[in-house]
Design a protein that fits this description.
The structure is a single chain. The protein is α+β, with helices and mostly antiparallel strands and about 775 residues long. The strands form three sheets. Strands 1, 2, 3, 4, 5, 6, 7, 8, 9, 10, 11 and 12 form a twelve-stranded mixed beta sheet that branches. α8 crosses α10. The radius of gyration is 34 Å and the shape is globular. The two termini are about 40 Å apart.
């Protein structure tokens, strides 16, 4: 029986070649895209699952995610439900400053500084070394297998010494390799190649430095709510006065896995996921599979009349309805298996290209490490076969054998209502995807073109080097640079827009406020071309004055109160002397944020040199800076970065979503077009004689084409009417997450309708023109 099913299936595949190709091509492309999306979703949702007991690990947070080191003493042993605590120096990703040399090159590893509990808490497997003692020695280091290969080749790294150097300092740190850990999987949220033992994460008692991550592992079965409240109480009482204990916006303990999708968690070494993006991708994958399934159902029911006599003869010869149904379902399953096999080949070939275009980092090892995913995809293809094949099989097996043999089945009417309904659904999905893409691209372009409140072009910045730190007055450097005709201005600051991360809490009129802050020198506002709207800017005297002064932005002013009541007042020990116009310090989609600039004696805590080149002299200015650097700081690397390029990294999320949507929608629309093309072929064949009669009676070619398009155009209008309110609701919900966003305009509907119409006309009109060119004698000569 199975042998008969195989023969029958392949006979029909070759009998209806075009429909077979369209079905297999549509299914294989949709399966490839769906598998790619599901791999990405699985990868995202599996983040950090490789860590044993990860559900018992939490990150402590107050109003921000970093705490001071001494806070750990207040709760580590006083809360019995806590099994282990590890403190990590919350470092940013290595930006090209810290390096280690091998025989031929400088290597810039990403690293973290931790206490001795880190390896035990996260149970990082060591290929070499003992995890219990690997980080106990003062200058010990544990490195990844890949880093060990780069530094020592195939030799054992244990006991070897490495020297960590800084490109902006003469400081050298000698570390002894005490272990090698297995390379972290792609599903690890925290990425590093080197783990360093650090004294400061445990021994430092300076409460002013809030730059440490506290990781807490609870005992099995511990009451989280109880521990969370105890932790909050102890942290509050340790760091604040009794009168300040009742404070709003306390965070508490965050699940370690939850941090991956938390947009507020901004540690540089951690990968961040976007849960919204995961849902968008998942929805697209499901919609694409639905489109290909609808194509299969439409094409299968459309050729039902051509298979009616075959079914009738089989029934007449004694084949039962159940056996016919099994045979038809076998055909469907076999087509899906062929499509699945082809999709695996496409995935293997296209994966490197697609993953680079879409910037997806996936664990693509289906045939070795991820066999359960391969099985899942195979079972999914069988489920798709059942979903797409049941209705066509029921239609074909319902024909009366007597009527089919007599030719009394009305051609093309079998499943006509369902076909129209499915076409409408396809058009609805296509319209939603197209309108959604227009919306996302428009929002992305809007965010990227918002005026930032300062001029970012022609500005370069360089990480300040050690000799600059030792200077009491940075004005010597900036004045010397400004004497060049190629340089318009120069200034020192702590960070640049896009990476400003210093957060402060200050009390003003018995109320606590939280905002971003940054130390700068007097030239900063002039260099950035930021306007002072009240009070004054910084002056050279501010750097000499022992009392630091502040300039706040409009958002901070809105928090503090009326302008005249804030000017001249103190925030902590700093006096407010001016109010500047708002400018964006992060992605403009977040809106303006409360922000203060302060100027302190000696330029404390400034570590970036910013330079604005004179208009038209950028190239000459770069040459001058390089020459100046060689003359004054020959032992240090001059790493120049342009502000406009570095700030544009803020838009990566929008650019990625925009690019991905355009790619996925193009594939989805292409699959829908395959179905429309197949149906237009079928309709042209069914109406050949009608078109022949019309041509004999004097109909023009364009009238024949119009007849082909009219049926689809009616369905297209219905589909767009259904899609528009859905698009409006979903689109407005998506836009509401942005502080700055476009409005959902009427032209989105018009553009969506025009594009779906254009796609339909191009797809269907081709077969209409082909039908209109047929010689009527050829189709009428047998009548």
């Amino acid at each position: 029986m199975i042998n008969h099913y195989f023969k029958s299936t392949f006979r029909n595949l070759f009998r209806f070649k075009l429909f077979s190709v369209l079905n297999i091509l549509g299914l294989s492309i949709s399966m490839t895209l769906a598998m790619l999306i599901f791999l990405f979703v699985h990868n995202e949702l599996s983040t950090d699952k490789h860590i044993p007991d990860v559900n018992r690990i939490y990150r402590g947070a107050f109003r921000w995610f970093n705490l001071n080191a001494s806070t750990v003493d207040t709760y580590e042993f006083s809360i019995p439900e806590i099994e282990l605590v590890s403190v990590v120096n919350a470092l940013d990703r290595n930006d090209g400053n810290l390096f280690v040399k091998n025989d031929s090159e400088k290597i810039f590893p990403d690293f973290i500084e931790v206490d001795t509990n880190f390896l035990k808490m996260f149970q990082i497997p060591l290929l070499y070394g003992n995890p219990k003692i690997a980080l106990k020695a003062k200058n010990s280091a544990v490195i990844s297998a890949q880093m060990a290969k780069k530094l020592f080749g195939n030799k054992s790294p244990l006991g070897k010494e490495i020297v960590l150097e800084k490109s902006h300092s003469t400081e050298k740190r000698r570390k002894t390799i005490s272990g090698v850990f297995k390379d972290l999987p792609t599903t690890a949220s925290m990425k590093f190649q080197m783990i360093l033992n650090s004294d400061i994460v445990r021994s430092r008692k300076d409460d002013s430095s809030w730059s440490f991550g506290h990781f807490i592992k609870l005992k099995e079965g511990a009451d989280f709510d109880k521990v969370n409240q105890l932790w909050i109480d102890k942290v509050l009482k340790h760091n604040f006065k009794e009168s300040e204990v009742e404070m709003p916006d306390i965070r508490g303990l965050f699940s370690y896995r939850e941090l991956y999708f938390n947009p507020d968690y901004g540690e540089g070494l951690r990968r961040h996921g976007n849960l919204q993006l995961v849902y968008v991708y998942l929805a697209i994958g499901i919609l694409v599979l639905l489109i290909s399934s609808f194509n299969f159902i439409n094409l299968s029911t459309s050729i039902a009349s051509k298979r009616a006599k075959e079914i009738g003869v089989k029934k007449f010869l004694g084949c039962s309805k159940w056996n016919l149904f099994k045979g038809l379902m076998f055909e469907c399953v076999l087509i899906c298996i062929i499509s699945f096999s082809l999709s695996l080949i496409l995935l293997e070939v296209l994966y490197p290209y697609i993953s680079s275009v879409l910037n997806m980092e996936l664990n693509f090892k289906l045939y070795s490490e991820q066999r359960e995913m391969l099985l899942f995809f195979f079972l999914g293809s069988l489920l798709l076969a059942l979903f797409a094949g049941i209705y066509p099989a029921l239609i074909l097996t319902s024909f009366s054998p007597v009527k089919t043999i007599k030719g009394q089945i009305v051609k093309g009417n079998s499943g006509l209502f369902l076909r129209r309904t499915l076409i409408v659904f396809q058009f609805v999905i296509s319209a939603l995807l197209i309108i959604g893409t227009i919306l996302i691209v428009s929002q992305s372009n809007y965010i990227q073109n918002i005026p930032l409140g300062y001029k970012k072009n022609q500005i370069t910045y360089i990480k300040a080097v050690e000799p600059m730190w030792r200077m009491n007055d940075h004005n010597v450097i900036t004045s010397e640079l400004q004497r060049s005709p190629y340089i318009e201005n120069a200034s020192f600051c702590r960070a640049v827009p896009g990476v400003i991360d210093m957060q402060w809490g200050r009390t003003y009129k018995d109320k606590d406020y939280y905002f971003y802050a940054m130390p700068v020198d007097p030239n900063y506002l002039e260099l950035m071309d930021v306007e002072i709207i009240k009070g004054r800017g910084f002056t050279a005297n501010d750097k000499r004055n022992p009392e630091p002064v502040l300039i706040i932005n409009e958002q901070a002013l809105n928090m503090f109160g009326k302008i005249d009541s804030v000017l001249g007042q103190k925030l902590g020990n700093m006096k407010v002397v001016g109010v500047c116009k708002d400018f964006y310090i992060h992605n403009p989609s977040k809106g303006y944020e409360p922000f203060v600039l302060y100027c302190a004696k000696g330029g404390w805590n400034v570590n970036h040199l910013m330079i604005r080149f004179a208009k038209g002299h950028t190239k000459d200015g770069i040459t001058f800076i390089k020459s100046y650097w060689r003359d004054n700081y020959p032992d240090y690397v001059c790493n120049m970065h342009f502000l406009n390029k570095s700030f544009d990294k803020q838009y990566i999320k929008e650019q990625k979503l925009s690019g991905v949507m355009r790619f996925f929608v193009a594939i989805a629309v292409f699959i829908a077009c395959l179905g429309l093309f197949g149906l237009s072929v079928f309709m042209a064949e069914q109406r050949n004689k009608e078109f022949g009669v019309r041509k004999v009676l004097g109909a023009y070619k364009w009238e024949i084409i119009h007849l082909q398009l009219k049926e689809f155009f009616r369905l297209l209008i219905i589909a767009n009417i259904i899609a528009w309110p859905i698009a409006y609701y979903v689109g407005n919900n998506w836009l509401s997450q942005f502080q700055n966003h476009i409005t959902f305009s009427w032209y989105f509907y018009i553009l969506g309708f025009l594009l779906t119409t254009l796609i339909t006309v191009i797809t269907v009109a081709y077969m209409g023109m082909k039908a209109a060119r047929v010689n009527p004698i050829e189709v009428l000569k047998y009548e």
